[in-house]
Amino acid sequence: MDTLLPFPAYRAVDLGERIQRIRCLVLDVDGVLTDGRLYYTADGEDIKVFHVRDGSALKLWKVAGGWTVILTGRSSLALTRRAEELSVDVMRQGVADKAQALSEICADLRLERSEICAVGDDWLDVPLLRQVGVAAAPADACPEVLACVDFITPCRGGQGVVRDVVQWLLSRQGKWQTTLEQAWQESDGWKEKIEPSA
Q1: Residue ranges making up the domain that contains 156
Q2: Torsion of CA 167, 115, 54, 121, to 10 degrees
Q3: What CATH number does the domain containing 19 carry?
Q4: What is the C-alpha to C-alpha distance for residues 8 and 188, in angstroms, rounded to an integer?
Q5: Which are the contacts of 110, defined by CB distance < 8 A and separation ≥ 6?
Q6: Element (H, E) at 134
Q7: Burial of 101: CB neighbours in 10 Å, binned 0-12, 13-18, 19+
Q8: CA gap 11, 132 in Å, rounded
Q9: Which helix (H) or strand (E) holds 120?
Q10: How many of the other CB atoms lie within 10 Å of CB of 175?
Q11: Is residue 28 one of the residues assigned to a domain?
Q12: Among residues 144, 115, 146, 149, which one has the least CA distance to residue 130?
């Protein structure tokens, strides 16, 4: 018997329409931003490996005006540092109930759940994934997650999942190319692209 709450009414709306409303990414960490494996030093400190393309994608997401939220059940100094590097808007570590945390974040950011795309990989993420406007998962997510998401990335966790999700969303919102151009304009490489040296 399915003991989960039913999908909200807005999940019955056409996917293309739902994607147009997305303003915020809510990301799990282990298995999404990382490959899910846990590394510890001899002192017991955990080590995380992040993919650089996920970082560049989150910068594009910010250029496009999007919010980024990290929700994770674990706590990590490495994650804190990475989130600071990427100017993540909200980060909550050690979260036992992600669905409850989502309610608080929506209130803080004045967002509707239908304006959120969540990315998760394991059964603990299912209640969260069922509450948002759009849900996504890496290719190696557990079957329970794969059964309830709108988009499955071509890559596995830690291999550029967020990059795939951001491009998928922005492309379908009609913003991918203009966001790239704006990001290029804000970088030093843009002048070389439009004004090649003689």
Answers
A1: 15-187
A2: -110
A3: 3.40.50.1000
A4: 45
A5: none
A6: strand 134-137
A7: middle
A8: 8
A9: none
A10: 18
A11: yes
A12: 149
Q: Which H or E element spans position 167?
A: helix 161-172
Residue pLDDT tens, the chain, 198 long: 356 667 888 888 899 999 999 999 999 999 999 988 887 877 877 778 889 999 999 999 999 999 999 999 888 888 899 999 989 999 999 998 998 899 999 999 999 999 999 999 999 999 999 999 999 999 999 999 999 999 999 999 999 999 999 999 999 999 999 999 999 988 765 544 444 444
Q: What DSSP designation does 12 have?
A: G
Which structure tokens are listed for 117? Answer: 């795309």
User: Would the pTM count as exceeding 0.85?
Assistant: yes
Number of domains in the chain: 1
Residue 1 lies in a domain: no
Cα gap 178→49, rounded to integer Å: 30
Structure tokens at 14: 């056409």
For residue 79, the model assigns a pLDDT of 87
Assigned domain for 151 exists: yes
Distance, CA of 98 to CA of 125 (rounded, Å): 7
- The answer as to whether 7 is a domain residue is no
Strand 134-137 to 116-119 pairing:
parallel
The C-alpha atoms of residue 141 and residue 174 are separated, in whole angstroms, by 28
Give the C-alpha distances (Å, rounded to integers) separating 118 from 53, 60, 151, 170, 195: 18, 17, 11, 15, 40
